[in-house]
Write a structure and sequence with these properties.
The protein has about 300 residues and is an alpha/beta fold. It is built from nine helices and eight strands. GO terms for molecular function: monoacylglycerol lipase activity.
Length: about 300
């Protein structure tokens, strides 16, 4: 802007001097908080533009909201990314009554989204996080623009991993090598498990880990996920690493029972594409959300 000796010029600013009004800039979220619902504390992280389409990310068993960090840089430019720690994981508390049932947890997640003012969301779940994503779609289809399942087994009979017995009362009793041995089938053969992921595993409450595993198994045995998703009529993307050592990759075809489901196989990746190749996984996710995300504030029958 040009300044004269005695007054401010009314001439328009030069192009290089123009700045957007403060109220025209998007409000950026970078929050990390505990929100109390029904007597338990849920750890919630939000990143990205507050008015952008919402994307809810749900981690798998033995992980936490931190497991999505490698993908954040690719997602937060265009989405309001919401990450949660499931009960007993990360910084979320354990329920006093020991109730980790899938349906009760997603009911609470639905209330959380209402409290956050999220009208519509795409929900993505990795591994058993996809079980919770499916249950949320069943419980609150009014909230969802779409569902993304990343290496989520469609039924218990598709589980192919050998269980590794862990008898310790706390993860702190295990060495890093013991933890890596216990979770190595969660990645493609030869993947170098980073120390940060070992640390995440240590954050999980040991008793909660067992209780959540039982709850997930019960939900899958009661009814396969494709059968639950088929009547809902929401867009579905299934991402599956073709080197998965926990769930039979061929079982991903079961999701074709859901009308219009898109199945994207990831060559060379194992059970955790979001950690093994976060850029490729984010690209597949963003292609889906671009096609199926409603405008913020709009509704859909």
């Amino acid at each position: 802007m040009t300044i004269s000796d005695d007054h401010t010029s009314t001439a328009p600013p030069a192009p290089g001097d123009q700045h957007p009004a403060a109220d025209a800039l998007p409000r950026m979220l970078d929050s990390d908080e505990l929100i109390t619902l029904d007597g338990v504390d849920l750890h919630v992280c939000q990143n990205g533009p507050a008015d952008a389409p919402a994307l809810l990310l749900i981690h798998g068993t033995g992980a936490s909201a931190r497991s999505w960090e490698p993908m954040l840089g690719s997602l937060t430019g265009s989405h309001r990314v919401i990450r949660i720690d499931l009960l007993g994981c990360g910084r979320s508390s354990r329920p006093d009554d020991g109730n980790y049932a899938v349906t009760d947890q997603v009911r609470r997640i639905g209330v959380l989204l209402d409290r956050l003012g999220v009208g519509r969301v795409v929900v993505a779940g990795h591994s058993s996080g996809g079980v919770f994503a499916t249950a949320l779609a069943v419980h609150r289809p009014d909230l969802l623009d779409g569902v993304v399942l990343i290496n989520t087994g469609p039924r218990m009979s598709a589980y192919i991993a050998a269980d590794v017995p862990l008898r310790n009362a706390a993860w702190s009793d295990l060495t890093d090598d013991q933890i890596r041995a216990a979770i190595r089938d969660g990645f493609h053969p030869g993947f170098a498990i980073p120390a940060s992921y070992v640390d995440q595993f240590r954050e999980i409450d040991f008793e909660a880990f067992g209780a959540v595993s039982v709850a997930i198994r019960s939900y899958l045995e009661e009814q396969p996920l494709p059968d639950r998703l088929a009547p809902i009529g929401r867009p579905l993307l299934v991402i599956f690493g073709d080197q998965d050592q926990r769930w039979d990759p061929a079982a991903a075809a079961d999701y074709h029972a859901v009308r219009g489901a898109r199945i994207t196989m990831m060559p060379g990746l194992g059970h955790s594409p979001n950690l093994e190749d976060p850029q490729r996984t984010a690209a597949a996710l963003l292609t889906f959300t671009a096609a199926h995300t409603a405008d913020v504030g709009s509704g859909r029958d």
